[in-house]
Write a structure and sequence with these properties.
Layout: H1 2-24, H2 33-42, E1 45-61, E2 68-83, E3 90-94, E4 97-102, E5 106-112, E6 122-124, H3 133-152, H4 155-180, E7 185-190
Parallel strand pairs: 4-7
Antiparallel strand pairs: 1-2, 2-5, 2-6, 3-4
Helix pairs in contact: 2-4
């Protein structure tokens, strides 16, 4: 009889432990901000630019009235990465209401494709003073800066990047809702300085 009682207590303890573990493993299924940040990182757009930048340095060589300017052009291609800063995404879930705060889309990265640069990329004016490596480096930096400025001022491009990110976030929320049987309503809030879209617009 004593053995039976001990065995019963052991089985009861094991059952309680099993139930406790099962409760710990239960996961509440709802939109997660960590997943949204990953989605935003995947939603970034890469835009390819082809441009010609001008470089000019006056009176770079010579004396008195026989001075020459340095004058040449650089033809280049580059890549600009545009999207929203995933670290600034905020999320609030209350019943069927999902509120997502997003920052404005912006240029996240910019680089000139060095593989597209060669001697033929530099077009030197016939009257120009001699061009050296330092001049080419300066022109390269100016080209990268001009490319970033051009992308930053392209309102249509920024708006397209933001819509792309928001559409993927919307699909994610709706898919979660379909799995758990909820019909979420999404409210978009745009961070200060975000003029790419209006509130509640996707």
């Amino acid at each position: 009889m004593r053995k039976f009682i001990i065995l019963s207590l052991i089985l009861l303890a094991a059952l309680c432990s099993s139930c406790g573990n099962a409760q710990k493993q239960t996961i509440v299924m709802e939109p997660q901000v960590s997943e949204m940040k990953s989605i935003c990182e995947l939603a970034t757009m890469e835009c390819y630019y082809h441009n010609v930048a001008r470089y000019k340095e006056e009176d770079a060589e010579g004396i008195l009235f026989w001075k020459k300017d340095k004058h040449f052009w650089i033809e280049y291609a580059g890549v600009v990465t545009i999207g929203i800063d995933a670290s600034l995404i905020e999320l609030e879930v209350k019943d069927e209401q999902v509120t997502i705060t997003v920052p404005p889309a912006r240029v996240l990265g910019c680089k000139v494709d060095e593989n597209t640069l060669s001697e033929e990329s530099f077009i030197i004016d016939k009257k120009s003073a001699d061009i050296d490596a330092q001049d080419q480096t300066a022109a390269f930096r100016a080209a990268q800066s001009n490319m970033e400025k051009s992308a930053s001022e392209d309102a249509a491009l920024l708006s397209n990047a933001q819509r792309r990110a928001q559409k993927l976030l919307e699909d994610y929320v709706n898919n979660i809702g379909n799995i758990i049987g909820k019909q979420y309503k999404i409210k978009w809030i745009y961070s200060s300085g975000n003029s790419n879209l209006e509130d509640d617009e996707v």
